[in-house]
């Protein structure tokens, strides 16, 4: 890109030099041919003039093309970088922002920066070079007239500065209004069935009109400033030309200046003043780009919630044993804990059901396991190794998650199934589809596995989308599986159809099943009941700023697992351990089986398997500041 911009500058400077030489030839023709009427002296300078014009055209085109190519490549690279950075941020970065506004930042705002850094920078260099060339040529004709001309240039700069400050404020308002309007459009189109079902078409139109009015006002403020700037500058330019022509006529009458010299001088001014005006317009472009760059820089300055430690090691394909040891966590900036003292372990083949009311932290457990965040207290182990000692990419290669909302892209059925393994063959895709119950309905689609599924899979039913997601998980084939409400929103018959391939998928894998519905649990499932952190602890955290550390008073006694009929009955086998999330240590009631072992291990502060921790040998594993 730098070479392209450099080439654009060189070609633009050559074009300016050609214009300087052509104007000089014009003055020569005026004095030597037109005033003397010697037509024989016309042809040689005319041919030179034509050659200079052709050379100026070629160099101008080459400079413009090189600059445009460099600018577009810069735009592509910048958008790629910003988008790649967004992909490293925690999920709540996008969740806390309006999608349409983010889209505007990745498109319109980046294009504004491209206009400044790409074409704007080249334009600045070439315009300054043009000003120097045209002013220098004017000085060669009459230095006193040139000094008079230069004395009026600061007036251009003052006007440009006044307009640029106001233009930046108007541009910032326009960028924000554009993002808000895009958000309304995106939400309305994404939720069109809901809008129509609730007869809210007029309300959505009014929302768009309200945001559009704000965008219109911001745009008109920009248009008013831009429209006023040009006439003001033109008036100043006209005054300058009148003064110069009047003074030049006086000099011609006195015999101190030729007509060709005056016309050439006026031609240089005709190029010099627009060049100075372009510098002023560039100031307006800078103001507009600065408004867009502020919004893009805000994204780039937002750091990921977690980063890899300096000595983080790749995980390889593990067995899939996971353990949570006294894990506590609060989302950055929210001030209240979501998890406190959570401890459990799961071996390959285990199905651990995370149950509890909304807000108890079930989905947060999945986010911590995938290391979207690091716990504030305690640690999480994969095959005995603290997750903070593993690279995030290798960790996530060991985990497959089925989200509560089935996520599909607008490609084909095959592309969606192979999303977790892009290099999978068609035979592998078909085997995974058969195991998930997808193959039967795909066979009747118009183009089979190459049939597009539509935006977010809208051309398919809810059950079909869910089974495609299951096929994607089967093909990915990782030792750890996270199922987030896999039967949410499905009727009993469809839920049973979905659970059959899921039970085959869970075989031999460590599975975390997040669900409110305990009717379709596998027989071997073990329930971990999560409870919201009590209100008094949230208030204490908000006042103090950090959760209390050190010894805590024992929690009040809770009923044993066998005395919890709601959880045990719904799971299909009485006596399954139900491990409350908020059990103080010491004072944790015993639980049977592996749950008891995990509880005892957590209470004693020892891991059941050895592994490095962030404190004992994994350098740089601390969480970076969360998203603002």
From TrEMBL:
<dbReference type="Pfam" id="PF00005">
    <property type="entry name" value="ABC_tran"/>
</dbReference>
<keyword id="KW-0547">Nucleotide-binding</keyword>
<feature type="compositionally biased region" description="Pro residues">
    <location>
        <begin position="548"/>
        <end position="557"/>
    </location>
</feature>
<keyword id="KW-1133">Transmembrane helix</keyword>
<dbReference type="InterPro" id="IPR036640">
    <property type="entry name" value="ABC1_TM_sf"/>
</dbReference>
<dbReference type="GO" id="GO:0015421">
    <property type="term" value="F:ABC-type oligopeptide transporter activity"/>
</dbReference>
<keyword id="KW-0472">Membrane</keyword>
<feature type="transmembrane region" description="Helical">
    <location>
        <begin position="121"/>
        <end position="141"/>
    </location>
</feature>
<dbReference type="InterPro" id="IPR039421">
    <property type="entry name" value="Type_1_exporter"/>
</dbReference>
<dbReference type="InterPro" id="IPR027417">
    <property type="entry name" value="P-loop_NTPase"/>
</dbReference>
<dbReference type="InterPro" id="IPR003593">
    <property type="entry name" value="AAA+_ATPase"/>
</dbReference>
<feature type="transmembrane region" description="Helical">
    <location>
        <begin position="147"/>
        <end position="164"/>
    </location>
</feature>
<keyword id="KW-1003">Cell membrane</keyword>
<feature type="compositionally biased region" description="Low complexity">
    <location>
        <begin position="558"/>
        <end position="577"/>
    </location>
</feature>
<dbReference type="InterPro" id="IPR003439">
    <property type="entry name" value="ABC_transporter-like_ATP-bd"/>
</dbReference>
<feature type="domain" description="ABC transporter">
    <location>
        <begin position="322"/>
        <end position="569"/>
    </location>
</feature>
<feature type="compositionally biased region" description="Low complexity">
    <location>
        <begin position="586"/>
        <end position="628"/>
    </location>
</feature>
<dbReference type="GO" id="GO:0005886">
    <property type="term" value="C:plasma membrane"/>
</dbReference>
<dbReference type="InterPro" id="IPR011527">
    <property type="entry name" value="ABC1_TM_dom"/>
</dbReference>
<protein>
    <submittedName>
        <fullName>ATP-binding cassette subfamily B protein</fullName>
    </submittedName>
</protein>
<feature type="domain" description="ABC transmembrane type-1">
    <location>
        <begin position="6"/>
        <end position="288"/>
    </location>
</feature>
<dbReference type="GO" id="GO:0016887">
    <property type="term" value="F:ATP hydrolysis activity"/>
</dbReference>
<keyword id="KW-0813">Transport</keyword>
<keyword id="KW-0067">ATP-binding</keyword>
<comment type="similarity">
    <text>Belongs to the ABC transporter superfamily. Lipid exporter (TC 3.A.1.106) family.</text>
</comment>
<feature type="transmembrane region" description="Helical">
    <location>
        <begin position="46"/>
        <end position="71"/>
    </location>
</feature>
<keyword id="KW-0812">Transmembrane</keyword>
<feature type="transmembrane region" description="Helical">
    <location>
        <begin position="223"/>
        <end position="247"/>
    </location>
</feature>
<dbReference type="InterPro" id="IPR017871">
    <property type="entry name" value="ABC_transporter-like_CS"/>
</dbReference>
<dbReference type="GO" id="GO:0005524">
    <property type="term" value="F:ATP binding"/>
</dbReference>
<dbReference type="Pfam" id="PF00664">
    <property type="entry name" value="ABC_membrane"/>
</dbReference>
<feature type="transmembrane region" description="Helical">
    <location>
        <begin position="253"/>
        <end position="273"/>
    </location>
</feature>
<feature type="region of interest" description="Disordered">
    <location>
        <begin position="539"/>
        <end position="628"/>
    </location>
</feature>
């Amino acid at each position: 890109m730098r070479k392209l911009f450099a080439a654009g500058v060189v070609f633009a400077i050559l074009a300016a030099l050609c214009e300087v030489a052509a104007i000089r030839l014009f003055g020569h023709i005026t004095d030597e041919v037109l005033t003397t009427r010697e037509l024989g002296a016309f042809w040689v300078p005319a041919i030179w003039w034509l050659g200079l014009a052709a050379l100026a055209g070629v160099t101008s085109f080459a400079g413009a093309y090189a600059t445009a190519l460099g600018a577009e490549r810069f735009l592509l690279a910048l958008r790629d970088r910003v988008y790649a950075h967004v992909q490293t941020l925690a999920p709540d970065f996008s969740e806390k922002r309006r999608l349409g506004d983010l889209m505007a930042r990745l498109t319109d705002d980046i294009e504004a920066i491209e206009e400044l850094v790409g074409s704007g920078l080249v334009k600045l260099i070439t315009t300054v070079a043009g000003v120097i060339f045209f002013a220098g040529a004017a000085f060669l004709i009459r230095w006193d007239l040139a000094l008079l001309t230069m004395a009026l240039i600061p007036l251009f700069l003052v006007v440009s500065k006044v307009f640029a400050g106001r233009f930046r404020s108007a541009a910032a308002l326009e960028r924000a209004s554009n993002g808000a309007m895009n958000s309304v459009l995106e939400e309305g189109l994404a939720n069109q069935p809901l809008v129509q079902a609730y007869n809210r078409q007029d309300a959505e139109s009014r929302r768009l009109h309200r945001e559009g009015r704000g965008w219109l006002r911001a745009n008109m403020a920009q248009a008013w400033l831009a429209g006023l700037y040009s006439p003001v500058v033109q008036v100043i330019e006209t005054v300058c030309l009148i003064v110069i022509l009047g003074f030049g006529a006086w000099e011609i009458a006195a015999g101190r200046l030729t007509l060709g010299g005056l016309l050439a001088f006026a031609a240089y001014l005709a190029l010099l003043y627009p060049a100075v005006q372009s510098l002023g317009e560039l100031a307006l472009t800078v103001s507009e780009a600065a408004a867009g760059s502020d919004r893009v820089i805000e994204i780039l300055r937002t750091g990921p919630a977690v980063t890899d430690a300096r000595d983080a090691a790749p995980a390889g394909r593990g067995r899939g044993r996971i353990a949570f040891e006294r894990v506590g966590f609060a989302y950055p900036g929210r001030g209240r804990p979501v998890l406190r003292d959570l401890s459990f372990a799961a071996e390959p083949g285990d199905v651990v059901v995370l149950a509890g009311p909304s807000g108890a932290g079930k989905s947060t457990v999945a986010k911590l396991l995938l290391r979207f965040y690091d716990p504030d207290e305690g640690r999480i182990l994969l095959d005995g190794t603290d997750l903070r000692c593993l690279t995030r990419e290798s960790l996530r290669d060991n985990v497959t998650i089925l989200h509560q909302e089935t996520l599909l892209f607008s490609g084909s059925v095959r592309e969606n199934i192979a999303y977790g393994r892009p290099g999978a063959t068609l035979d592998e895709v078909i085997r995974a589809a058969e195991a998930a119950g997808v193959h039967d309905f795909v066979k009747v689609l118009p183009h089979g596995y190459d049939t597009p599924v539509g935006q977010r899979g809208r051309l398919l039913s809810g059950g079909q989308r869910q089974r495609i997601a299951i096929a994607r998980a089967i093909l990915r084939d990782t030792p750890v599986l996270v199922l987030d409400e896999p039967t949410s929103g499905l009727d009993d018959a469809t839920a049973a159809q979905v659970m059959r391939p899921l039970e085959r998928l869970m075989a031999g894998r460590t599975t975390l099943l997040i669900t409110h519905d305990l009717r379709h649990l596998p027989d071997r499932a073990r329930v971990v009941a999560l409870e919201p952190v009590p209100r008094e602890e949230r208030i204490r955290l908000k006042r103090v700023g950090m959760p209390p550390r050190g010894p805590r008073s024992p929690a009040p006694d809770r009923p044993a697992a066998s005395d919890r009929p709601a959880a045990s009955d719904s799971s299909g086998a009485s006596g399954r351990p139900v491990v409350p999330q908020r059990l103080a240590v010491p004072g944790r009631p015993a639980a049977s089986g592996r749950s008891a072992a995990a509880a005892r291990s957590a209470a004693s502060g020892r891991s059941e398997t050895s592994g490095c921790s962030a404190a004992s040998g994994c350098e740089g594993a601390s969480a970076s500041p969360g998203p603002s």
